[in-house]
Amino acid sequence: MRTVAVFSEADRESLHVRQADEAFCVGPGPVPRSYLNIPNIISTALVTGCDAIHPGYGFLAENARFAEICADHGLTFIGPKPSVIAAMGDKATAKRVMKDAGVATTPGTDILASVDEARAAAEQVGYPVLLKATAGGGGKGMRVVERPEEMERAYASATAEAEASFKDGRVYMEKLILNPRHIEVQVLGDEFGNVVSLGERDCSVQKPSHQKLIEESPAPHLSEKARAALLEMAVRACKHVGYTNAGTLEFLVSGEQVYFMEMNTRIQVEHPVTEMVYSVDLVKEQIRIAAGEPLGYEQKDLQLRGHAIECRINAEDPRNNFAPQAGTLQRVVFPGGPGVRVDTHVFSGAMVPPYYDSMIAKIIAFGATRDAAIARMERALRETVVDGVNTTIRQCLEILATPQFREGTYDIGFLPHLLAQMEPAAAER
Amino acid sequence: MASRVQRLAEFFVETDLLRLRIEREGEEIELGRAVLHREPVPELPSDLTADAPPARLDAIKADLVGIFHLSRPATAEGDLLESDRELAYIEALGIRNPVRSRGAGRIAAVRCADGDAVEYGQVLFEIDRG
User: Fold this and answer.
1) Fold of the B38-128 domain
2) What pLDDT was estimated at residue A424?
3) CA gap A213, A226 in Å, rounded
4) Are residues A236 and A148 located together in one domain of the fold?
5) CB burial class (10 A; 0-12, 13-18, 19+) of residue A327?
6) What is the mean pLDDT of residues B99-128?
7) Who is most buried in A168, A220, A312, B111, counting CB within 10 A?
8) Does the structure show a pLDDT above 70 at A429?
9) Contact A25 B67 (CB under 8 A)
10) Which of residues 54-73 of A touch B (CB under 8 A)?
11) SS3 A202
């Protein structure tokens, strides 16, 4: 299969540009004029004779209008149908649909019309609450509101950030479940009504901004009963909405209670951990499904084997609130060896532009057991060299060394708590 | 009228258009900007530059992705342009997007062939502004 990459002027040297058979610049660095420039992206597909567009996991990946425009131009959008993206990608609507399918959801609201409505709703739901962008993902447009007096400012900044990131400023509210685990289920559905789950991922190691940093599959300390219930719920929900292609249902798990949070109607950053433990190439499956092929296997054919962990290597300063770093990477050395996978777009001498997400690589380690995967990940992280910007490598090593991570007892409060403990120590140095 | 022009000017500043002209019901508004994209001028050997002043080369770049077509009559290297004119157009999503010379000059180079797929920022023409 031949590939055509699109890129912005700031990404001209990026590895994805070199690795594609052809590459087209679609605009200058700022996102609205390049990676969200629908006319130039569609025009690129047409002038190069593409059959299909894979939208990746950012920008237009969950944009139903983009999927419709692809169809209007005879291009296959590699993802679910536009109507399903619109229903499930819209997080407030998704919760309503899930309730219909009999899936438990977190207490919360539909889309909020004003800050006054947000205030009234928060009184009903009970503080603390979360404001979340309905078009969102990656922690963008999300704010924790602990007290009524914080609402006005949080509402304004959440809507502004959502508008800037997704061209959709609408937000909704959810009760903040204190210190749950973030566990998500990977699903695949074909156009013939077959839906399978490919296990779960624990993504509870999150920065204070709610962005994930370390993910693993399977989730540690999830009882077989809870796991089976979670996977069954995900498959039932997808069948209910006629879901096709790859998708992820995110749940908050607190004790034995499971709440549906949102669905991502696209491939996710952390999909490699699932690929490692199920020996399935999810992107290939996405392309096969989009081409109209049946899955060709059933749930019982999918066997979980071993354990996989992913660490996100971001150009960020963990000692300074994970402030994004831009600059030249003077030297980059990635790890190798059995059971280690690296997904990246950078290399020695690459520039990290200031316009985009700060993730520069994902390191994934596989092991027959969780302990083996952790040991391999520690070795891989120590082998990794990134000179020129601050990164999350050391932070990831520190997390892996904690008893909570070793024992798999962490929740989403774990990393913010660890950082708060480290701050005084850092100040003493 | 004044507020419409102001809104239009604000929009124009945010784009990378060099000239915007709207004609409607006897009204005509044209906005332009002085800053032009410049390709670095190649250094010439000193014996050549001794009496001839260095050429002022303007690069006309594609501002969208599409198929490049020369407008008729087709321009070629060395052609003199007395004023602003349409040199080519980029066909994108069924729309014909004119590429203009943005003033007078001499065509120093035609950098694309009729029917080429062009990307954003690709140099299409070089014009010697003399």
Assistant:
1) OB fold (Dihydrolipoamide Acetyltransferase, E2P) (2.40.50)
2) 59
3) 24
4) no
5) middle
6) 97
7) A312
8) no
9) no
10) 73
11) strand
* DSSP bridge pairs for A361: A313, A344
**At A96, is the pLDDT very low, low, confident or very high (cuts 50, 70, 90)?**
confident
Collapsed DSSP state (helix, strand, coil) of residue A260 = strand
Task: For chain A, give the number of residues.
Answer: 429
- Which whole-number Å values give the CA distances from A265 to A82, A187, A244, A272, A354, in the listed order? 10, 10, 9, 17, 27
Query: Which among A181, A266, A312, A341 is annotated as catalytic?
Result: A266
Q: In what order do the strands lie in the sheet with A181-189?
A: A257-264, A245-254, A181-189, A195-206, A212-217, A307-314, A359-367, A340-344
From CA A259, how far away is CA A261, in angstroms rounded? 6
Is B71 exposed, middle or buried (CB count within 10 Å of its CB: 0-12, 13-18, 19+)?
Answer: middle
Domain span at residue A137? 107-175
Task: Quick: pLDDT tens for B8-31.
Answer: 666 666 666 666 667 666 666 666
Residue type, A334: F
CB pairs < 8 Å spanning A and B:
41
The DSSP output letter for A74 is T
B59: its two tokens: 């690069």
pLDDT value of residue B13: 62
Looking up residue A311, the CATH number of its domain turns out to be 3.30.470.20
Which residues on A lie below 8 Å from B16 (Cβ)? 28
**Could you give the ipTM of this predicted complex?**
0.81
Q: For A297-306, what is the mean pLDDT?
A: 96
Residue B8: per-residue pLDDT: 67
- C-alpha to C-alpha distance for A8 and A27, rounded to whole angstroms: 5
Question: Is residue A201 in a domain?
Answer: yes
